[in-house]
């Protein structure tokens, strides 16, 4: 089983609120450049924030095969990790992708991978690939791009 975690691309700062921040041209290009690193996805979970939605749209437009895409409010920047582990990441799905934000994603990597990922901080459009059981300390970070 694999879990991909992708932080949205670079976003503009001139929106009326954080939820409506749109990707910049640089952010769009950075997200598009990551598509080839992701195998076909059984389940994609996306934050309802505009920049995450746009990032997921770009991945699909660039040819990423996604069986099911779900928009989920439990993957916003400062949400609690426990519902993500207990309810968002499904144990019986072979390949999953979460497109969301920091600090959530960096905190999630730290929790799942333990000391191996203690210093990981995802930048915009960074993509991490994890394997193992997606429980605290039971995952391995395969790579970060």
TrEMBL record:
GO molecular function, one term: catalytic activity
Origin: domain of life: Bacteria
Protein name: Phosphohistidine phosphatase SixA
Species in which this protein is naturally found: Reinekea thalattae
């Amino acid at each position: 089983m694999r879990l991909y975690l992708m932080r949205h691309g670079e976003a503009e700062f001139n929106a009326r609120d954080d939820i409506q921040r749109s990707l910049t041209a640089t952010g769009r290009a950075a997200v598009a450049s990551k598509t080839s690193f992701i195998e076909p996805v059984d389940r994609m979970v996306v934050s309802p924030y505009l920049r995450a939605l746009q990032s997921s749209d770009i991945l699909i437009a660039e040819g990423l095969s996604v069986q099911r895409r779900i928009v989920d409010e439990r993957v916003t920047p400062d949400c609690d990790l426990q519902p993500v582990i207990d309810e968002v990441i499904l144990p019986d799905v072979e390949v999953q992708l979460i497109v969301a934000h920091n600090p959530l994603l960096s905190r999630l990597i730290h929790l799942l991978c333990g000391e191996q990922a203690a210093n990981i901080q995802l930048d915009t459009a960074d993509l991490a690939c994890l394997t193992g059981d997606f429980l605290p300390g039971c995952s391995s970070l395969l790579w970060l791009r």
